């Protein structure tokens, strides 16, 4: 996706805008198509399928009479079924009154409660399916690392010659026998200094003693969008030789130097390919949600470390990839809900919420890092959109499902006045949240 930034007249804001349209377009199309196709299977006819809001840019009518269109404002989309007043599935009494009994049966509001429920739930479910497919597809493409202590991929490091070869089985590290690949990293992390490791390995039928470079060097695996590292121009694959005038031997050295900086600018000496370049970075105090659900505030620059050598990987079966995709999708949901909980409790600042501008910036930064980063972003946002739409707030899918549940139990829908009030309150909450998130985006943009 670096191609986006390299197109003539494309860069900066326009590059982010194109990436944003791609990310949100895919997620929204899948969500709305879920509503549309399940509704069609349930015998509910659709008048309009719109990708975006506002004036229509282009469109066509299919053989079923559904008008498909792309609209000017790419901030969402909607499916308007027969009998709907608009894309929020509010009933249009005037239109419903003029429908024949046969057409009324094919309208959204004339369908059975279970059909309407399936149609509404299909949007978020489609988002989850997209996430599972993307995460699972990445597992099939990249492979999945094992914990067997057998060397797989070996990264290159400036000035280092690695005696290890793919397929070597590591028997011991510095005299300590190991059974798991992760023990190599654990034992290296416990060393007082980042010195080479003494490994006993099995290579074919031979047992050999070899020296291997420290496996956790200051090598950048990824750069977080909108981070200090992104602002400074760090890129995946960079080897940070020194920071603040201090020579770095390990990624832990980099982490300690950043934390001890107190947020003061640091001069970096970076090896990128065949070149050595100088960068300046200003670490930022950042609130971070850890994998265990705790919140931590510390000075960071926003880079991930890359190991020098990795375990062997295997290609999972298609069903195994589905399971991996589902597990990663659930992880995103759990992390998102945990973050929302900490924001409500006041443990995590509400300024962590991102609106359209923030998503556009993240999309542009992810696109610059390549197609892989953009695919992961699509999977994460698709999961988040699916989850948020299930919240029991009127105008959202979860609010509609709540009302259908009441209708199924009571034998009748909520009173029209109650529906109007609920929809107004729900719409107001959603709009206020969007305005607040957009305010956060603008503040981040101006302060950076």
TrEMBL record:
NCBIfam families documented for this protein: RIP metalloprotease RseP (TIGR00054)
Cell compartments where the protein resides: Membrane
Cofactor(s) the protein needs: Zn(2+)
Domain PDZ: 126-205, 208-274
Keyword tags: Hydrolase, Membrane, Metal-binding, Metalloprotease, Protease, Transmembrane, Transmembrane helix, Zinc
Bilayer topology: Multi-pass membrane protein
GO cellular component: membrane
Classification of source organism: Bacteria, Pseudomonadati, Pseudomonadota, Alphaproteobacteria, Rhodobacterales
Family: Belongs to the peptidase M50B family.
Top-rank taxon: Bacteria
Top EC group: hydrolase
Enzyme nomenclature, EC number: 3.4.24.-
GO biological processes: proteolysis
Molecular functions per Gene Ontology: metal ion binding; metalloendopeptidase activity
Transmembrane segments: 6-30, 118-141, 371-396, 417-439
SMART domains in UniProt: PDZ
Protein name: Zinc metalloprotease
